[in-house]
Inverse folding.
């Protein structure tokens, strides 16, 4: 059960400068198994920067809130186990995950009578006898806000949204002082909104295995003509399909004369924004229709920035908004305060990272658009330096763009695109301004896949026919090799005019491209002779080193380059950039090891007739030597591994033979040894990186990505170190 006191408003200083503020006090009581429940408390406050200053955002919680989160995480059966393990690890010491902070002092809440809140010496809210509220907020170096919020209208009770209780007070008069660190407090005045709700709960981690997730939007609208409108929208989503299964929308309208009208609004989202920090997608523009008062309004958020806090899942959007439209057929304008908490439970980290696809696809479309043009031809062919006269824009588009879009449009798992922006986030830089790098990573990876399919003779990829089967081998190779140079098309846009930095970025990528070709060369050559030698000697040591080198060069080093490029752009120091690179190299290498394991598992479970899937035992069918097969050399009797190897060597084995070999390899302990190897790579690199990074939500997700790469197809380790449970 949650109780919330929220205040927000717009302020104007004596010199005419404007700013906004929002403060939210939270008090929750969770049911205890035995004995009385101990309430938990949290505080959120934000202030826009007057005069172009950066917005200030702070989130705080007490120790009981941290304990509540930790307990909820450990009991959440619906959360992806790799994310759950990373969150439990981050909360294990009893402190919040930044940017959440621990309240420095105790919390006091008046039990009865007028509102009286004192939150740890950081913020306080006191209701006076005249019904006004005094709000004070302290920053680390002194006063932040000291405001008196005085309601000018009667309270509007909350009704119509389930069991929500409490009331709101629109159109409050706000006066007081606001201070910016390093400057003298300035007198301000303006208008605000007070809200008190009871009975709601946070859409956060919950015990057991829930089948649904919930989120909400709240629009508090004040029109210049004197009308006030409060719109609430609650949505319930199925955890598997992500479809909305239930929705409750209601509105309260207050006319200038104080008349209250209850309404059932028609609410539609007309634009959205995806945060690269939390991967939440937030609506940023709404069309609001209220037939009861003949109102049609467009509400447009003014800021694309979410507030990160584990209290709300990963984050929430709180922002000022502009309002335009009609009321009773007449044009109206106004302002609004928008609060959005999307359904954001992470039940599958693959699906979660896949949320980047929308942003990635948008950026890819800018580099590889749907239609040809002279500008696109010039960009693809080197940017200039010579005339493109005589070059057919249509031909260039059909042979250089279409083959790449053939693979980027279906989209992949998304973890590689996540690496670059995560590296920036780990070093405290918002990656939103560097979104074109997502397209760079996706285009280059898709080019790798196109060439890989030519070399392996694969006929499908990402659920569609392989590029060379549609456009021909020459076109596929040419389009893919041209795509390796895509970084050159965006570097001036995303990297500041700094020759040293640009050189560093180019060097990292060129090294990775060369390394990846080396890994691919070893992979193409295969490991047949090395396997022969390993089987003869009953010792796979040299063979395993060769396979691991191929994995590391083919997948690990490109992932390292993506991370190091992000670290360079974030101006990280050498030790942290090196440690980031090492960790993501380990993640990429582990990903290839577990890819081998998934393909082996696919050999024991035939695909349904007519179905196409990536992991189907293709490695054994073609006689390819993989990590689990190599591991089995020393785990199976010499005679048995010799017989099994002869049965698949050279390729062309039938389904029964493939299944027999896969079953033997799986049963001898090779699979567990591979998982232990993959996890050891990731854990060793993580333990070197961990102490170099500040705690953050991004750090939790990066740790979860490592768990995913190393343990695909298994449960994650419990805190006692057991690999399976």
């Amino acid at each position: 059960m949650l109780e919330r006191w929220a205040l927000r408003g717009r302020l104007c200083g004596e010199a005419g400068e404007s700013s906004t503020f929002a403060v939210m006090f939270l008090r929750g009581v969770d049911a205890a198994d035995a004995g009385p429940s101990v309430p938990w408390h949290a505080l959120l406050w934000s202030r826009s920067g007057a005069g172009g200053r950066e917005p200030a955002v702070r989130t705080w919680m007490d120790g009981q809130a941290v304990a509540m989160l930790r307990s909820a995480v450990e009991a959440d059966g619906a959360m992806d186990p790799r994310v759950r393990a990373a969150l439990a690890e981050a909360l294990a010491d009893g402190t919040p995950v930044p940017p959440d902070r621990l309240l420095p002092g105790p919390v006091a809440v008046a039990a009865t009578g007028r509102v009286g809140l004192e939150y740890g010496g950081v913020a306080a809210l006191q209701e006076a006898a005249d019904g006004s509220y005094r709000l004070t907020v302290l920053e680390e170096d002194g006063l932040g806000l000291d405001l008196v919020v005085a309601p000018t209208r009667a309270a509007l009770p909350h009704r119509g949204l389930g069991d929500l209780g409490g009331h709101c007070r629109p159109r409050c008069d706000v006066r007081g002082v606001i201070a910016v660190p390093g400057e003298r407090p300035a007198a301000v005045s303006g208008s605000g909104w007070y809200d008190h709700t009871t009975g709601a709960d946070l859409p956060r981690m919950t015990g057991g295995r829930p089948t649904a997730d919930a989120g909400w939007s709240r629009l508090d609208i004040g029109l210049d003509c004197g009308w006030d409108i409060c719109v609430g929208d609650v949505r319930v989503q199925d955890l598997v399909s992500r479809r909305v299964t239930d929705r409750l929308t209601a509105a309260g309208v207050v006319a200038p004369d104080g008349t209250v009208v209850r309404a059932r609004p028609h609410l539609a989202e007309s634009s959205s924004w995806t945060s690269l920090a939390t991967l939440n997608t937030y609506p940023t523009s709404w069309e609001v229709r209220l037939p009861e008062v003949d109102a049609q309004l467009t509400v447009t958020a003014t800021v694309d920035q979410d507030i990160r806090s584990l209290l709300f899942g990963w984050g929430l959007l709180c922002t000022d908004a502009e309002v335009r439209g009609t009321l009773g057929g007449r044009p109206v304008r106004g302002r609004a305060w928008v609060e959005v908490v999307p359904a954001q439970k992470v039940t599958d980290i693959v699906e979660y990272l896949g949320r980047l696809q929308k942003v990635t696809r948008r950026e890819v479309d800018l580099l590889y658009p749907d239609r040809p043009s002279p500008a696109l031809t010039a960009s693809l062919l080197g940017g200039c330096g010579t005339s493109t006269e005589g070059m057919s824009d249509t031909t260039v588009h059909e042979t250089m763009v279409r083959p790449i879009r053939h693979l980027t449009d279906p989209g992949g798992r998304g973890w590689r695109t996540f690496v670059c922006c995560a590296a920036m986030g780990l070093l405290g830089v918002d990656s939103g301004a560097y979104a074109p790098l997502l397209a760079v990573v996706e285009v280059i990876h898709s080019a790798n896949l196109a060439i890989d399919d030519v070399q392996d003779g694969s006929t499908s990829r990402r659920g569609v026919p392989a590029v060379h089967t549609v456009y021909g081998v020459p076109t596929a190779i040419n389009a893919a090799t041209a795509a390796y140079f895509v970084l050159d098309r965006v570097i001036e846009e995303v990297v500041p005019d700094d020759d040293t930095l640009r050189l560093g970025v180019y060097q990292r990528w060129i090294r990775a491209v060369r390394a990846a070709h080396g890994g691919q060369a070893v992979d193409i050559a295969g490991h047949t002779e090395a396997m022969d030698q390993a089987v003869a000697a009953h010792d796979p040591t040299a063979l395993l080193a060769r396979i691991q080198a191929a994995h590391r060069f083919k997948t690990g080093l490109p992932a390292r380059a993506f991370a190091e490029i992000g670290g360079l752009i974030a101006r990280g120091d050498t030790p942290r950039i090196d440690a980031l690179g090492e960790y993501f190299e380990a993640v990429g290498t582990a990903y290839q090891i577990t890819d081998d394991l998934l393909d082996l598992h696919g050999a024991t479970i035939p695909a349904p007739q007519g179905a196409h899937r990536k992991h189907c035992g293709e490695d054994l069918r073609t006689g390819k030597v993989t990590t689990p097969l190599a591991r089995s050399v020393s785990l199976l009797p010499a005679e048995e591994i010799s017989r099994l190897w002869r049965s698949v060597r050279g390729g062309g084995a039938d389904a029964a033979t493939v299944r027999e070999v896969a079953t033997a390899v799986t049963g001898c302990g090779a699979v567990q040894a591979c998982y232990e190897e993959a996890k050891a790579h990731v854990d060793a690199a993580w333990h070197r990186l961990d102490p170099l990074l500040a705690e953050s939500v991004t750090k939790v997700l990066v740790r979860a990505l490592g768990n995913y790469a190393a343990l695909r197809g298994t449960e994650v380790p419990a805190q006692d170190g057991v690999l399976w449970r």
Observations:
- Confidence is low (pLDDT under 50) at residues 203-208, 608-613, 716-725.
- The longest strand covers residues 186-200.
- The radius of gyration is 29 Å.
